[in-house]
Amino acid sequence: MAQFIQVLILGLALGGVIALMGSGLSLVFGVMRIVNLAHPSLIIAGAYVAYWAFKLWGIDPIVMLPIAALILAGIGVLLYRLMFEQEAKSARYSEMTVLLTFALAMMVEGLLGAFFTNTQRVTSPDYATDAFFISDIFIPKGQLYAGIVSLVIIGGLALFLKYSRMGYAIRATTQNRDAAELLGVNVNLVSVVAFAIGIGLAGAAGALVSFVFSFFPAKQWEWIAMLMSVVVLGGMGSILGTVVAAFSLSVIAAFVGTWVGATWSTMTFFLALFVILLIRPEGLFGEKPEMA
Amino acid sequence: MAATLQTPDTGAVLAARKAHDEKLAKRADQTRAIWFPVTVLAVLLALPLLQFTGNYNYLLHLVLFTASYVVMAAGWNILGGFAGYVSLGHAVFFAIGGYFSGVLLARFGISTLLTAPLAGLLAAVCGYLIGQITLKVRGPSFIISSIALLMIARILFDHWTFIGGANGLALPINDLPVLWAKLPYYYAFIFMAAFTVWATYRIKHSKLGLGLRALSKDEIKAESAGIDTRFYKVVAFALSAFFVGMAGAVWGEYLTYLRPNIFLIILVSANLVLMCILGGKGTIAGPVVGAVLIVGINELFVATMGASELNLFGTGLVMAVALMFFPLGVVGTLARKGKLPRILNWD
Amino acid sequence: MTALLEVTNITAGYGDGPAILDGAHLTVVPGKVHCIIGPNGAGKSTLLKAICGMLKIRKGEVVLKGERLNGLRPDQILRKGICFVPQERALFPKMTVRENLRMGGFTLGDARELDRRVDAILDRFPILRERANQHAGTMSGGQQQTLAMARTLIIRPDIVMLDEPSLGLAPKIVQEMFSIMKMMSEEGVTVLLVEQNALMGLKNSDIGVVLDLGRTLIEGPAADVLADPRIQELYLGGRKAA
C-alpha cells in the first residue's frame, strides 16, 4: 500500500510539469490549427536558458522562468511572422504546417546541438535532489515545486482565457475563426499573441524541466511523442483536457515504470497515443475529429 | 424531364471532350523522352569501369547512396505522394528490412542481395498490418501516429537482445579487393532504383494509382465513387514499405553493421519526405530529382560545415524553404508553369 | 435617395481559381431590405463575402458612405458598420448563448453597456433567455440561427448581410427568421439577404437583385422583379416545375 501511494505521488508530481509542457502545444493547435512538432525543441531551448543562467550566474531556474518565457515568446512572434503567417491561406494548411514545424524542430535541434553539444544536462539547484518525507513516503522537492508552479501558471492561463478580452478573442478564434473575424476580432493579431503565449509556455516549461529531467537537444523526439499523446488524449485545443490527460498518463507511466520496467514507462505514452488515435481520435474532451 | 431534353447535348459534349482528351494525351506522349532515363541508367551501369583507371570509390559511394535513397523516396512516394498520407515513420521499414536480412547474413551467411526481396515482403506485411490500424486517421493525426510508431519500434529494437539491442549487430565484411568491394551493392541499388521508378510509374497509371490519387484529393468522394479506399490505402502502405524494406536489407550489409541509432532515426524518414517534397510529391521523377539534390546538398554541408549538428540544421532549413516557397517541388512547380523539360517528364 | 453602399463592377474568386464574380454591381438603399437571388453558382454568397472582406476583390470598388472598403479585413469592415452572418458556422459552439451575444459586441469598449445590451436582447428573445447559459452548439438549427441574427442587433450596424438564413430550416421556423429580419429593418438596419428560395425572399423584401454568372442582371423594386416575366421563367418558373 505504501508503495502504491509512493508511486502515485511520483506520478502526480510529474503530471503538473507535463501538463505545462503540453498546454502551450494545445493552445497553439486550438487557435491556429498548427500541430507544433517544434514545441519540445523550444522547451529544450527554454531549458538551456535556465541551465546557463544557473550555471553562469547561479540564478534559480524558478526565478529565471519568467525571463525564459519572455525570450521564447519573442522567438515565437518572430517564428510566426517568418514561417506561419503566409501559410494561413495555403490549401493544405494543416499538413503543411506539420511539416514546417517538423523542419523547424530539426533546425532548433541542430542549432542547440551545435552550440551546446548533445551532452546530457540538468540544472541542479539544492531542492532538485532534496525531498520531503511523510513517514515512509518521500516527495521529491524539485518535482513538487515544478508541479505547483506549473499548476499556478496553467490556472493563470485558464483565468486569462476565461475572463480577459483577449482571452475571449482567443477562445472565439479557436472555436470559429471566420465568425470571430466577422465580429471584429483581428484574428491575425490574436494568432500572433496566442502563438507567442504558446511558445512562451514552452519557455516556462523549459525552465522547470531543466531541473526535473535531464535534457539534450535530441531528447525532443521522445518528448514529441509524449506530449502528443497528452494533448491528443486531452482533445487537442482543450487546456483542461491536457491537464487531466497529463496527470492520468503520468500516473499510469509511473506504475508501469515501477511494476513492469523503467523502459516501458516512456512506452506508455507512445502506446497510449497510438491507441487513442485509433479509438477516439478526437480525444477524451474533443468535440469532433477536426484534425482530419 | 430535364434529363431527356439534355441527352443529345450530353452525347455531343462527351464526344467533344473525348476528342479534346485524346489530343491532350497525344501531346503528353509526345513530350515524354524515354531515352533520357535509359541513357542515365546506361551511364551508371558503365560507371564502375572507371575503377580500371584509378580509385573512384567515393564517386561510386555517392551514386550508390543516391540510388538507395531513390528506392526509398520513390517507395515513400506511393503512400505520401499518390495517396497523400505523409509518414514520418518509414524508417521502421528500413530497419525491418535491414535487420531481417542482416540476421540471416550474420547467422547463416546468406547475402542480403538474395534475401532483399524477402525483406521487402516482410516489411510489406508489417506495413499492411500497421496500415490496417493507422490509416484510419488522416492529416496531422496520421503524421503523429507515424512518429509514435517510430518511437515504439525504437524502444523495441533497443531492448531486443536477439538482434543485439542498442549495440546492434556486426555483419561480415565481404572479401573482395578494395576497388571492387562496393560493386555488388552498387549494382544492387542501381537495379533496385530503376525497378522502383519503373514500378511507381506502373502503379501510378494502374487502377490502384488512379484510386489513390482520387482519395488523396477527397477521400469521402472517392469512397462514394465506389473506390474501396480502405483497401487501396493499406495496399499503398504495404507497397511503399516493400521498397523501403528492400533498400534497408542491402544497406545493412553495405554498412557492415546494424544499429537502432542508425536505422531507426527520424532523420531517415525526414530525408524521404524532404526528397519527395523538394523533387515533387506524387510525380515519378520527383523522388529521383529530390534524392540527387538532397544527397548533393548533404555532401556540400558535410564538406563545408562538417559537424553533423549543423547538418541537421541545414536539412531543416532546406525543408522549411522548400515548403514555404516551392510546395510543389522542382518537378511539380515546373510542370505547373508548363516549363518542365521533356527529359524530366516521366509521368 | 443616396446609396448607402455602392458596389461597382467587382471581380472576385477563391484563391487562384476562376472569377466567380465577374463585373457585379449593387446599390444598397438605406433602410430597405434587399434580396439577392440567382441560380446556384451565380455568385450570391461570393458577393457578400467580397463586400465583408473575406474574399480579395480583384477588380472594382466597394464604397460605404463615400469610403472605399477595398482591401480592409473583415474585422475592420465590421467597425465601419457592415455585419455579415455567414450561411453556417456563425456561432461559437462551445460558448454559452450569453457569451456568444457578448462576442457580438466585441468591438464595444464599455463592458457595462455591453451587459445592458445583451440583457435587452435576451428580453426580446425569450427563447434565448431560457437558454442563456447553454452552449450554443447544443441548440437546434432554428435557435442557432435566431441567435446568430439576434447577435447582430447588439452593435446595430448600418448593414446586416444574411447568407441564406432559411437554409435547412422547417417552413414554420423560416417564417420566424423573416420576422426577425423585418424587426431589424424596422429598427433602421439595412438588410442584404441572399436567398435560394427566390419567391419567398422577394415577397419579404423591398428591392430585388438578380445575379447570374457573376453579373448583376436586374436591380429593382422587389414587386417588379417578382412580376417580370423573364424572371418568372428563368428563376421562379423553373423552380415550380422542379
TrEMBL record, chain A:
Tell me the domain of life: Bacteria
Q: Where in the cell is it found?
A: Cell membrane
Got a GO cellular component term for this one? Answer: plasma membrane
Q: Where are the transmembrane segments?
A: 7-31, 37-54, 61-84, 96-116, 144-161, 192-216, 223-256, 262-279
Its record classes its membrane topology as:
Multi-pass membrane protein
Q: Which UniProt keywords apply?
A: Amino-acid transport, Cell membrane, Membrane, Transmembrane, Transmembrane helix, Transport
Give this protein's Gene Ontology molecular function annotations.
transmembrane transporter activity
InterPro entries xrefs: ABC_transp_permease, BCAA_transport_permease
The biological process GO terms on file are:
amino acid transport
Region forming the signal peptide: none
The UniProt entry, under PANTHER family, shows: AMINO ACID ABC TRANSPORTER PERMEASE PROTEIN (PTHR11795:SF445), BRANCHED-CHAIN AMINO ACID TRANSPORT SYSTEM PERMEASE PROTEIN LIVH (PTHR11795)
What does the sequence similarity comment in the record state about its family? Belongs to the binding-protein-dependent transport system permease family. LivHM subfamily.
Q: What is this protein called?
A: Amino acid/amide ABC transporter membrane protein 1 (HAAT family)
- Organism (species): Rhizobium subbaraonis
Automatic annotation (TrEMBL), chain B:
Q: Which GO terms describe its molecular function?
A: branched-chain amino acid transmembrane transporter activity
- Principal subcellular localisation of the protein: membrane
**What Pfam families does the annotation carry?**
BPD_transp_2 (PF02653)
- How does this chain sit within the bilayer? Multi-pass membrane protein
Question: Could you confirm whether the keyword Oxidoreductase appears in this record?
Answer: no
Q: Can you say where in the cell this protein is located?
A: Cell membrane
For this record, the Gene Ontology CC terms, alphabetical, are:
plasma membrane
- The protein here is known as Amino acid/amide ABC transporter membrane protein 2 (HAAT family)
UniProtKB/TrEMBL annotation, chain C:
MF terms per GO, please? ATP binding; ATP hydrolysis activity; branched-chain amino acid transmembrane transporter activity
Q: Where is the ABC transporter domain?
A: 5-238
Q: Which SMART domains match?
A: AAA (SM00382)
CDD domains of this UniProt entry? Answer: ABC_TM1139_LivF_branched
Q: Which PROSITE patterns match?
A: ABC_TRANSPORTER_2
Domain of life per record: Bacteria
Record-linked Pfam families:
ABC_tran
Q: Which SUPFAM superfamilies match?
A: P-loop containing nucleoside triphosphate hydrolases
Residue ranges crossing the lipid bilayer per the database entry: none
Q: What are the alphabetically sorted keywords of the record?
A: Amino-acid transport, ATP-binding, Nucleotide-binding, Transport
Listed Gene3D superfamilies: P-loop containing nucleotide triphosphate hydrolases
InterPro entries (alphabetical): AAA+_ATPase (IPR003593), ABC_transporter-like_ATP-bd (IPR003439), BCAA_Transport_ATP-bd_LivF (IPR052156), P-loop_NTPase (IPR027417)
Q: What protein family is recorded? A: Belongs to the ABC transporter superfamily.
Name the record gives this protein: Branched-chain amino acid transport system ATP-binding protein
